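#structure-requests
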Amino acid sequence: MRSVAVYCGSNPGNRPAYRLAAQALGRDIAARGLQLVYGGSRSGLMGAAADAALEAGGRVVGVIPSALQRREVAHHGLSELEVVDSMHQRKARMNELADAFIALPGGIGTLDEIVEMFSWNQLGIHRKPCALLNVEGYYEPLLVFLRSTVTQGFLSQRQLDELVVADGVEGLLQRLAAIPRHAAPLHAPAP
């Protein structure tokens, strides 16, 4: 594993633990010599993770759609900032750059991004691990829903078990690195 995509809010949320987790994850990614790939904002949890990785000497690549450069306030102190035309291109580019995906707390955009990557894994578009950093139980409602998809026959337990869920940063990157890449992807996604 060389690079980790981190999805999280461009807002800080209302619990200090969210920012602390974002900072800890950014530092851990840098300390392990991995590249952090994220949405390119300098605000919220996104900025906290990026700044922590940069302060720890890590390489950080931001991928931001041109329409969001002003709204999310692009981070111009990164190792590299890529500006793309659309959210579809952002997600496809982050998939190209990353070997694993982690979602910290965030809103609908964060949920969209990690669910799409998890779906792509299930469909065989890629074979990269996906994880939820379940800070203070933030993702419990989503996990209840996902368990329901298993009991209702829409997702197998084996598929759900492929989603890594961690309450804290410690050990998360080791868990992701230990997951084997089962097979080559079936095909690449269209931009």
